[in-house]
Structure formats: structure tokens, C-alpha cells
Amino acid sequence: MENEQKKKRxxxxxxxLMFLFVLLIVYIYAFYKAFNFSMLPDKxxxxxxxxxxxxxxxxFVLALQRYPTWFVVIKRIxxxxxxxxxxxxxxxxxxxxxTTEKIATVNSTAQTKLFILTRSDSNIDSIEDLQGAxxxxxNGSDVxxxxxxxxxxxxxxxxxxxxxYLDYTSLYSFLTNGxxxxxxxxxxxxxxxxxxxxxxxxxxxxxxxxxxEAEQVENKIDVTEDVFTVYISGIDxxxxxxxxxxxxxxxxxxxxxxxxxxxxVSLPRDGYIPNPxxxxxxxxxxxxxxxxxxxxxxxIEDFVGIPIDYYARISFTSVAQIVDAVGGIDIDVELSVCSxxxxxxxxxxxxxxxxxxxxxxxxxxxxxxLNGAQALVYARHRKTxxxxxxxxxxxxxxxxxxxxxxxxSLNALTYINNLLEVAPNFIITNMPSDQITSFIxxxxxxxxxxxxxxxxxxxxxxDRQQVASLSTENGPYxxxxxxxxxxxxxxxxxxxxxxxxxxxxxxxxxxxxxxxxPAISDDPNLVWSSMSxxxx
Length: 536
Hints:
Number of strands: 19
Strand content: 15-25%
CATH class of the largest domain: Alpha Beta
Largest sheet: 6 strands, mixed
Low-confidence stretches: 344-354
CATH architecture of the largest domain: 3-Layer(aba) Sandwich
Radius of gyration: 28 Å
Mean pLDDT: 81
Number of helices: 16
Distance between the termini: 106 Å
CATH superfamily of the largest domain: LCP protein
Structural class: alpha+beta
Number of domains: 3
């Protein structure tokens, strides 16, 4: 009898030790991910490790003692739940890291994949079959990857023809309608195109995959200490945000990480500024992006007189998915709006015929809670008389601010998983992934509330002028002429953030308020609000 009890105790102890061995493996996996996950401050990881070690030690001691069966069962259930929790944490950390790399057009990973796609019904099944084929390459935001693939293909296959275009959305359309035979596309944009193009897996196939060593980018800006600027460009078209499309949302964010302060500048889409792609002739700001995101950045830098360090571009029709991912937003709604639901991915013909769409309304009032479909309806409306484009821009600013406020709130962790699912499909940025993680790590290390100050361009005037991108025969066109004062205000916000002026150094001259501030551009081709009434 005594021998049987010893065997039972030995058997029970062995089972307990096996449970602890599995838990140890899960510990190693979870904390390996945590220590290699640069977003998490080390102090939090060490604290978690100490707590985990104490728990493991207690469980180990308990495994060596005799306890009633019910206690042993509860202990084992606890170990299973702990394993599930730590395994989920490890998986989640990897998911966050992967999402950051997908959003960033510049990342710090060792390798990236590059794909060659053809139509599913094509007889091109391998890279050797590309001889004489027309291959599409993106020469916009992903030009480095395209150039790399072009050189590899030309070295392996003779007689190919390159078809360069600025965005993958158009190139994918060219591929599916037979205008090109193959498409070279990087891993980041492959996932984005797959998510935004209906029937992707049925229409195309991958015939070859390259691997490319990631280029090491020198980070000249410390985003945890230095003031930096981010240009947020929102396009009002479905599909990948890399496409050539007019920008309806143009926000310039001056970020001061030391003071946890953001100056958010809203630039009117019809702002009248020089377009570098058209020999510097004046054009609408929204049209500068038709020549690529970098052209818009150069336009704004030259006009406003401050550098733009990073950009983030979003497809504004994806706002519904983003708003739903953060659990809705609470914003002021200027007027009641009802329209057909355009929040789901549909073809252009379906949108025009309103096939399968329901009416969605956003009600006027302060601090209204909007879901994704309501936010999209409100952000796109501009037909009410007296509201127009300016009203739509105000609505879009409010929607973006609503999302930003949600991301900066203490509840952000509760919906971060949902946001990770949709963000890679609709957002791209040239901020390196290690810079993004450094910024988040810094905020988690010393979490403080952020303040946001909005600078709205509204002291200029609406006018009619010829624009470089449109025919003079149908002009002049509606534009917004900036005032010199509002440009001074933007420059002062950036200059003040950079200098962190001390109160004892503060002085001004009532006769010349801009004496000690940066000078605005003296380009004689610029047209200011004070020069309205004459078509230039």
C-alpha cells in the first residue's frame, strides 16, 4: 500500500515537473520576444521577468509538496492559462513588429522579399519565360526595390521591356487587363495590393521570389529628443496609398517629443503654390501629388520654408476600417449628413448605382460618437451650399484628430490588435521602422499626456487663378491664396519648437512683429492674398 502511494506521488510530481518544463519553454519564448522587441522599455520587461521568476519558483516548490487533488488540478489549470497568456503575448509582439515593418517603406529587418506576378491564365510560369515580356515597375515611393528587381531580371533574362509607372494600383490594373505581361512588386506593397484588390488570388500568380538585403539607413534625427515634422497626405481614392492621386487631406505635424506637444497645420487642398514638377509654375496643392508624394513634399518645403522629415500617406476611403478598428471616434459634427454607405470595398459601377448600399447618417452636434461608415460619410460630404470644400477639409481634420486622440489615450492597448489588422493595407510611411519603435519605447518609458495645437490656414482668401496642371482655356480656377501672416505663423511654430525659447530672451518690436522670425520666401512668382483680383 505504501509503495503504491509512493508511486502515485512520484507520478504526480513527474506530471507537475513536465508542466513546469513546458512553462519554462514558453517563458523563454515570450521573454526572448520581449527583450528583442525594441518598443518595450527594458525596465518593464525586467519587472515582468522578476514577477515571472517568483511565480515559477513558487510553482516549483509547490510541485515538491503533497496537496489534495483539487489543489493540484487548480495549479495545473493555472499553468496552462499562464502558458496561453505568455504565448499570446509573444505572438502579439511579433505581430506588432511585423506590422511596423510593413507600414514603413524603410525598415531595419535583414531581408525583404520581392515578387514577380503574372496573370493566372498566363503561360508565363517561371522567370525564364519572361523573355520578350513587358514588365511593370513602380518608379515612385518604391523605386529602390523596382530598380533592384529590374537589374536582376535583365541579368537573367534577355529581351524584356520595362514599363515604369508611379503607383502599384495602376500597374496592377495594367497587368490584369493585359497591358503588361508581368509586375515586379515588393513584399510590403504585395500585401497592400492583395488586401485592396478584389479577387487578387484568382487573377494573378507569383512566378518568382527574390530576397533583398535591407539597406541600412542612417538616422540623423533622434525622434525621442529632436523636433521633427511629419506630412500626412490623405488621398480620396480606393486602393494602395502609393498611387498617383490628388490629396484631399494635407496636414503638417510639428512634433516636439521633449515637451509632448504637436502643432498640427492644416493646408487647404486648393492652396496656390509652385509645383516643382511643372517648372515651378503655380498650381493647386492637391495637384502636386499627381507627380508623386516627394513632389508634394518639395512643394510644401519650398513654400512654407521648413523641412519635412517624414511622411505618412493614407487612402482616405479606408477611414471606415481605421475608425472601426479604434472603436469609433468622438468628434464635433458641424452639420447633419446622410449618404449611401461607401465604407465597403466595391467597384466603381456599384458605387455609382448604389447597389447593395444602405443610407448612413452622421448627426449634427458636439462630441458625437461615429462609427467607420458615419465618419466616412461626414468626411466626404461637400455638397451643402456654403459648406463646400472648406467644410469637407474641416470634417477630415476632425476625423483624423479623432483617430489621433484615440491612439494617444490610455485605452489604446484595448484596440491595438484590431488596428494592426488594417493599418498595413492603407497606410505607408518613410519613417524607418526602428525610428517608430524608438518613439513608442520613449513614450512608454515616460508616459505623459500630449497636447495638440491646431494651426488652420484661414486668413487667406478664395480667388480664381490659372493653374499649371489644367488647361488655360477652361480657367481660371478656384484656388486659395495664402496670406503671408499664416506662413509666418507656421514658420514661427517650427522655429519656436526648435529653439525652445527661454522667457528671459523674449522680445518683440510693435512696429515690426516679424523682425526676429524666419523670413518667408521672396520668390516673385508667389501670389499672396494681398495680390488677389488679378489673374497671374
